[in-house]
Design goal:
- This protein is of the alpha+beta class.
- It has 3 domains: 41 residues; 122 residues; 107 residues, Arc Repressor Mutant, subunit A, CATH 1.10.10.
- Helices cover 44% and strands 11% of the residues.
- The protein has a 3-stranded antiparallel β-sheet with strand order 2-4-3.
- β3 and β4 form a beta hairpin.
Protein backbone atom coordinates (compact mmCIF):
# COMPACT_ATOMS: atom_id res chain seq x y z
CA UNK A 1 0.00 0.00 0.00
CA UNK A 2 2.88 2.35 0.85
CA UNK A 3 4.51 1.55 -2.50
CA UNK A 4 1.31 2.45 -4.37
CA UNK A 5 1.03 5.73 -2.45
CA UNK A 6 4.60 6.63 -3.34
CA UNK A 7 3.92 5.86 -7.00
CA UNK A 8 0.81 8.03 -7.01
CA UNK A 9 2.63 10.92 -5.35
CA UNK A 10 5.45 10.58 -7.86
CA UNK A 11 2.98 10.65 -10.76
CA UNK A 12 1.39 13.79 -9.36
CA UNK A 13 4.80 15.41 -9.05
CA UNK A 14 5.71 14.35 -12.59
CA UNK A 15 2.53 15.96 -13.92
CA UNK A 16 3.26 19.16 -12.00
CA UNK A 17 6.78 19.20 -13.43
CA UNK A 18 5.36 18.64 -16.92
CA UNK A 19 3.27 21.78 -16.42
CA UNK A 20 6.29 23.85 -15.57
CA UNK A 21 6.52 23.13 -11.87
CA UNK A 22 3.81 25.55 -10.85
CA UNK A 23 0.06 25.32 -10.40
CA UNK A 24 -2.45 28.14 -10.57
CA UNK A 25 -4.68 26.88 -7.79
CA UNK A 26 -5.45 24.14 -5.31
CA UNK A 27 -8.30 23.13 -7.60
CA UNK A 28 -5.81 22.33 -10.35
CA UNK A 29 -3.87 20.09 -7.93
CA UNK A 30 -7.07 18.28 -7.01
CA UNK A 31 -7.88 17.77 -10.70
CA UNK A 32 -4.44 16.27 -11.33
CA UNK A 33 -4.80 13.97 -8.33
CA UNK A 34 -8.28 12.87 -9.43
CA UNK A 35 -7.13 12.10 -12.98
CA UNK A 36 -4.18 10.05 -11.74
CA UNK A 37 -6.33 8.15 -9.23
CA UNK A 38 -8.89 7.40 -11.93
CA UNK A 39 -6.15 6.13 -14.21
CA UNK A 40 -4.69 4.06 -11.39
CA UNK A 41 -8.06 2.51 -10.50
CA UNK A 42 -8.85 1.62 -14.12
CA UNK A 43 -5.47 0.05 -14.95
CA UNK A 44 -5.57 -3.76 -15.33
CA UNK A 45 -3.26 -5.53 -12.88
CA UNK A 46 -1.56 -8.89 -13.40
CA UNK A 47 -2.10 -9.81 -9.73
CA UNK A 48 -5.83 -9.41 -10.40
CA UNK A 49 -5.70 -11.49 -13.60
CA UNK A 50 -6.31 -8.40 -15.74
CA UNK A 51 -8.97 -6.80 -13.56
CA UNK A 52 -8.52 -3.20 -12.46
CA UNK A 53 -8.63 -2.09 -8.80
CA UNK A 54 -12.08 -0.62 -9.50
CA UNK A 55 -13.35 -3.92 -10.93
CA UNK A 56 -11.95 -5.82 -7.95
CA UNK A 57 -13.59 -3.31 -5.59
CA UNK A 58 -16.94 -4.02 -7.25
CA UNK A 59 -16.45 -7.78 -6.88
CA UNK A 60 -15.65 -7.44 -3.19
CA UNK A 61 -18.06 -4.76 -2.03
CA UNK A 62 -20.86 -4.57 -4.59
CA UNK A 63 -21.29 -8.17 -5.75
CA UNK A 64 -23.61 -8.80 -8.68
CA UNK A 65 -24.31 -5.06 -9.13
CA UNK A 66 -24.59 -3.65 -12.70
CA UNK A 67 -20.95 -2.46 -12.68
CA UNK A 68 -19.59 -5.85 -11.64
CA UNK A 69 -17.85 -8.17 -14.09
CA UNK A 70 -19.80 -11.06 -12.49
CA UNK A 71 -23.59 -10.90 -12.63
CA UNK A 72 -26.50 -13.29 -12.58
CA UNK A 73 -28.02 -13.91 -15.98
CA UNK A 74 -31.32 -12.15 -16.50
CA UNK A 75 -32.89 -15.47 -17.49
CA UNK A 76 -31.84 -18.67 -15.70
CA UNK A 77 -33.20 -22.05 -16.74
CA UNK A 78 -35.68 -23.12 -14.05
CA UNK A 79 -35.09 -26.86 -14.47
CA UNK A 80 -31.31 -26.81 -14.84
CA UNK A 81 -30.81 -24.90 -11.60
CA UNK A 82 -32.40 -27.86 -9.79
CA UNK A 83 -29.14 -29.76 -10.34
CA UNK A 84 -27.66 -27.74 -7.46
CA UNK A 85 -27.16 -29.98 -4.40
CA UNK A 86 -27.48 -26.98 -2.10
CA UNK A 87 -30.80 -26.01 -3.63
CA UNK A 88 -32.07 -29.58 -3.26
CA UNK A 89 -31.03 -29.69 0.41
CA UNK A 90 -32.67 -26.33 1.11
CA UNK A 91 -35.91 -27.44 -0.57
CA UNK A 92 -35.89 -30.55 1.62
CA UNK A 93 -35.81 -28.34 4.71
CA UNK A 94 -38.41 -25.87 3.43
CA UNK A 95 -40.81 -28.66 2.45
CA UNK A 96 -40.80 -29.91 6.04
CA UNK A 97 -41.95 -26.56 7.44
CA UNK A 98 -45.67 -26.47 8.19
CA UNK A 99 -47.29 -23.27 6.79
CA UNK A 100 -48.80 -22.34 10.16
CA UNK A 101 -47.06 -24.44 12.80
CA UNK A 102 -43.55 -24.16 11.40
CA UNK A 103 -40.87 -26.77 12.07
CA UNK A 104 -39.70 -27.53 15.60
CA UNK A 105 -35.95 -27.48 16.08
CA UNK A 106 -33.91 -29.41 18.62
CA UNK A 107 -33.20 -27.90 22.04
CA UNK A 108 -29.90 -26.55 20.66
CA UNK A 109 -31.62 -24.93 17.69
CA UNK A 110 -30.59 -27.56 15.16
CA UNK A 111 -32.60 -29.26 12.46
CA UNK A 112 -34.49 -32.41 13.46
CA UNK A 113 -32.34 -35.50 13.04
CA UNK A 114 -34.77 -37.06 10.58
CA UNK A 115 -34.39 -34.17 8.12
CA UNK A 116 -30.60 -34.23 8.43
CA UNK A 117 -30.60 -37.98 7.82
CA UNK A 118 -32.95 -37.58 4.85
CA UNK A 119 -30.60 -35.00 3.28
CA UNK A 120 -27.59 -37.21 3.97
CA UNK A 121 -29.34 -40.23 2.47
CA UNK A 122 -29.76 -38.38 -0.82
CA UNK A 123 -25.94 -38.55 -1.31
CA UNK A 124 -25.89 -35.10 -2.87
CA UNK A 125 -22.16 -34.53 -2.37
CA UNK A 126 -20.40 -37.52 -0.81
CA UNK A 127 -17.73 -36.63 1.73
CA UNK A 128 -14.09 -37.17 0.83
CA UNK A 129 -13.94 -39.69 3.70
CA UNK A 130 -17.00 -41.76 2.80
CA UNK A 131 -14.91 -43.97 0.54
CA UNK A 132 -13.34 -45.70 3.55
CA UNK A 133 -15.70 -45.27 6.48
CA UNK A 134 -19.35 -44.52 7.07
CA UNK A 135 -19.83 -41.50 9.32
CA UNK A 136 -22.52 -41.58 11.99
CA UNK A 137 -25.05 -38.83 11.36
CA UNK A 138 -26.80 -37.76 14.55
CA UNK A 139 -27.48 -34.07 14.00
CA UNK A 140 -26.73 -31.27 11.55
CA UNK A 141 -23.28 -30.59 13.01
CA UNK A 142 -22.32 -34.10 11.84
CA UNK A 143 -23.20 -33.23 8.24
CA UNK A 144 -21.86 -29.80 7.16
CA UNK A 145 -23.98 -29.68 3.99
CA UNK A 146 -27.19 -29.76 6.05
CA UNK A 147 -25.80 -27.27 8.57
CA UNK A 148 -24.77 -24.90 5.78
CA UNK A 149 -28.17 -25.21 4.08
CA UNK A 150 -29.89 -24.32 7.36
CA UNK A 151 -27.59 -21.30 7.87
CA UNK A 152 -28.03 -20.03 4.31
CA UNK A 153 -31.81 -20.30 4.46
CA UNK A 154 -31.74 -18.04 7.51
CA UNK A 155 -29.10 -15.60 6.18
CA UNK A 156 -30.95 -15.27 2.88
CA UNK A 157 -34.23 -14.38 4.64
CA UNK A 158 -36.04 -17.45 3.30
CA UNK A 159 -36.74 -18.71 6.82
CA UNK A 160 -36.85 -17.13 10.27
CA UNK A 161 -36.38 -18.54 13.75
CA UNK A 162 -39.07 -17.98 16.36
CA UNK A 163 -39.65 -19.69 19.72
CA UNK A 164 -37.64 -22.78 18.89
CA UNK A 165 -39.17 -23.22 15.45
CA UNK A 166 -38.47 -22.09 11.90
CA UNK A 167 -41.04 -20.55 9.58
CA UNK A 168 -41.01 -19.61 5.91
CA UNK A 169 -40.93 -15.83 5.44
CA UNK A 170 -42.64 -13.72 2.78
CA UNK A 171 -39.40 -13.76 0.85
CA UNK A 172 -39.29 -17.54 1.20
CA UNK A 173 -42.85 -17.94 -0.05
CA UNK A 174 -41.92 -15.88 -3.10
CA UNK A 175 -38.85 -18.06 -3.68
CA UNK A 176 -40.70 -21.38 -3.44
CA UNK A 177 -41.58 -22.36 -6.97
CA UNK A 178 -39.07 -19.90 -8.44
CA UNK A 179 -35.88 -21.94 -8.55
CA UNK A 180 -33.58 -19.27 -10.07
CA UNK A 181 -34.68 -16.70 -7.48
CA UNK A 182 -34.12 -19.20 -4.66
CA UNK A 183 -30.66 -20.00 -6.01
CA UNK A 184 -29.76 -16.31 -6.23
CA UNK A 185 -30.90 -15.66 -2.66
CA UNK A 186 -28.90 -18.59 -1.31
CA UNK A 187 -25.73 -17.98 -3.32
CA UNK A 188 -25.73 -14.24 -2.61
CA UNK A 189 -26.00 -15.05 1.11
CA UNK A 190 -23.10 -17.50 0.72
CA UNK A 191 -20.96 -14.84 -0.95
CA UNK A 192 -21.79 -11.87 1.26
CA UNK A 193 -22.96 -13.10 4.67
CA UNK A 194 -21.96 -16.67 5.36
CA UNK A 195 -18.83 -17.35 7.42
CA UNK A 196 -16.96 -19.87 5.27
CA UNK A 197 -15.18 -21.18 8.37
CA UNK A 198 -18.44 -22.50 9.80
CA UNK A 199 -17.78 -26.00 11.13
CA UNK A 200 -14.17 -26.26 9.92
CA UNK A 201 -10.96 -26.23 11.96
CA UNK A 202 -8.94 -23.52 10.24
CA UNK A 203 -9.74 -20.83 12.78
CA UNK A 204 -10.43 -17.12 12.44
CA UNK A 205 -9.04 -16.45 9.00
CA UNK A 206 -10.90 -14.64 6.22
CA UNK A 207 -9.83 -17.13 3.58
CA UNK A 208 -12.98 -17.69 1.55
CA UNK A 209 -14.88 -14.88 3.23
CA UNK A 210 -13.17 -12.52 0.79
CA UNK A 211 -13.09 -12.87 -2.98
CA UNK A 212 -15.54 -15.63 -3.93
CA UNK A 213 -16.61 -13.67 -7.02
CA UNK A 214 -12.95 -13.34 -8.00
CA UNK A 215 -12.79 -17.15 -7.95
CA UNK A 216 -15.83 -17.21 -10.26
CA UNK A 217 -13.94 -14.85 -12.57
CA UNK A 218 -10.94 -17.23 -12.49
CA UNK A 219 -13.17 -20.18 -13.30
CA UNK A 220 -14.64 -18.22 -16.20
CA UNK A 221 -11.11 -17.82 -17.60
CA UNK A 222 -9.65 -21.23 -16.82
CA UNK A 223 -12.43 -23.59 -15.79
CA UNK A 224 -13.24 -25.20 -19.12
CA UNK A 225 -10.76 -27.98 -18.36
CA UNK A 226 -9.80 -29.84 -15.21
CA UNK A 227 -7.17 -28.07 -13.13
CA UNK A 228 -5.73 -28.79 -9.73
CA UNK A 229 -7.30 -26.73 -6.95
CA UNK A 230 -3.82 -25.38 -6.14
CA UNK A 231 -3.90 -23.59 -9.49
CA UNK A 232 -6.82 -21.48 -8.25
CA UNK A 233 -5.44 -21.17 -4.73
CA UNK A 234 -2.20 -19.70 -6.07
CA UNK A 235 -4.04 -17.06 -8.08
CA UNK A 236 -6.40 -16.32 -5.18
CA UNK A 237 -3.52 -15.66 -2.77
CA UNK A 238 -1.67 -13.64 -5.37
CA UNK A 239 -4.65 -11.28 -5.39
CA UNK A 240 -5.06 -11.40 -1.58
CA UNK A 241 -1.52 -12.01 -0.26
CA UNK A 242 -2.27 -10.97 3.34
CA UNK A 243 -4.53 -14.03 3.70
CA UNK A 244 -1.78 -16.49 2.82
CA UNK A 245 -0.13 -18.14 5.80
CA UNK A 246 -2.63 -16.60 8.23
CA UNK A 247 -3.43 -20.01 9.76
CA UNK A 248 -1.51 -22.75 11.48
CA UNK A 249 -3.28 -26.01 10.76
CA UNK A 250 -1.27 -28.95 12.16
CA UNK A 251 -2.98 -31.79 10.30
CA UNK A 252 -1.97 -31.02 6.72
CA UNK A 253 -0.54 -34.19 5.12
CA UNK A 254 0.08 -32.96 1.58
CA UNK A 255 3.64 -31.69 1.34
CA UNK A 256 2.90 -29.96 -1.98
CA UNK A 257 0.16 -27.80 -0.49
CA UNK A 258 0.18 -25.26 2.27
CA UNK A 259 -2.49 -25.21 4.95
CA UNK A 260 -3.73 -21.99 3.34
CA UNK A 261 -4.23 -23.77 0.02
CA UNK A 262 -6.09 -26.60 1.74
CA UNK A 263 -8.28 -24.11 3.59
CA UNK A 264 -9.11 -22.34 0.32
CA UNK A 265 -9.97 -25.64 -1.36
CA UNK A 266 -12.25 -26.74 1.45
CA UNK A 267 -14.07 -23.45 2.03
CA UNK A 268 -14.48 -22.07 -1.47
CA UNK A 269 -14.54 -25.18 -3.66
CA UNK A 270 -15.38 -28.40 -1.76
CA UNK A 271 -17.87 -26.80 0.66
CA UNK A 272 -18.89 -23.99 -1.62
CA UNK A 273 -18.99 -24.08 -5.38
CA UNK A 274 -19.17 -27.90 -5.51
CA UNK A 275 -22.13 -27.93 -3.13
CA UNK A 276 -23.88 -25.32 -5.25
CA UNK A 277 -23.33 -27.48 -8.34
CA UNK A 278 -21.24 -24.83 -10.09
CA UNK A 279 -18.07 -26.91 -10.48
CA UNK A 280 -17.36 -30.58 -10.99
CA UNK A 281 -14.71 -32.16 -8.80
CA UNK A 282 -12.42 -35.12 -9.37
CA UNK A 283 -10.75 -36.65 -6.31
CA UNK A 284 -7.28 -38.13 -6.63
CA UNK A 285 -6.51 -40.61 -3.84
CA UNK A 286 -2.90 -40.48 -2.66
CA UNK A 287 -3.23 -42.37 0.61
CA UNK A 288 -5.86 -43.34 3.17
CA UNK A 289 -6.09 -39.81 4.61
CA UNK A 290 -4.65 -37.81 1.73
CA UNK A 291 -6.51 -36.45 -1.28
CA UNK A 292 -5.91 -33.89 -4.00
CA UNK A 293 -8.64 -32.39 -6.15
CA UNK A 294 -9.19 -31.17 -9.66
CA UNK A 295 -12.12 -29.00 -10.68
CA UNK A 296 -13.74 -27.61 -13.79
CA UNK A 297 -16.92 -25.69 -14.52
CA UNK A 298 -20.18 -27.62 -14.38
CA UNK A 299 -22.88 -26.95 -16.97
CA UNK A 300 -24.77 -24.88 -14.38
CA UNK A 301 -21.91 -22.37 -14.14
CA UNK A 302 -22.60 -20.72 -17.49
CA UNK A 303 -26.35 -21.08 -17.03
CA UNK A 304 -26.28 -18.92 -13.91
CA UNK A 305 -23.55 -16.31 -14.43
CA UNK A 306 -22.75 -13.68 -17.00
CA UNK A 307 -19.06 -12.81 -16.72
CA UNK A 308 -17.23 -10.24 -18.81
Amino acid sequence: MKTNSKKILQQIQDEIDRRGGQLNSEEELNQIAAQIMQRQNSTPLSDYEGLSPYQMHMLLYQPFEPGSVVKYRSVINDEKVLSSPMLIACFKIVEAIHPQKGLKLTQTGRLPRKIVHDIYSMKLCPSRFESFFQPKILNESDYPLAATAHALLKLSGIIKHKTGKIFVTRVGKKAIGNNPYMFELLFTAFVSKFNKGYLDFYGETDIGNIGVLFVLYLLHKYGRELRDTNFYATKYFRAFPTLYGAIDYPFSHNEDNSSSNNCFTLRVLNHGLVWFGLVEQVTIVISLMQRTYQVKNALLFNEVFEIK
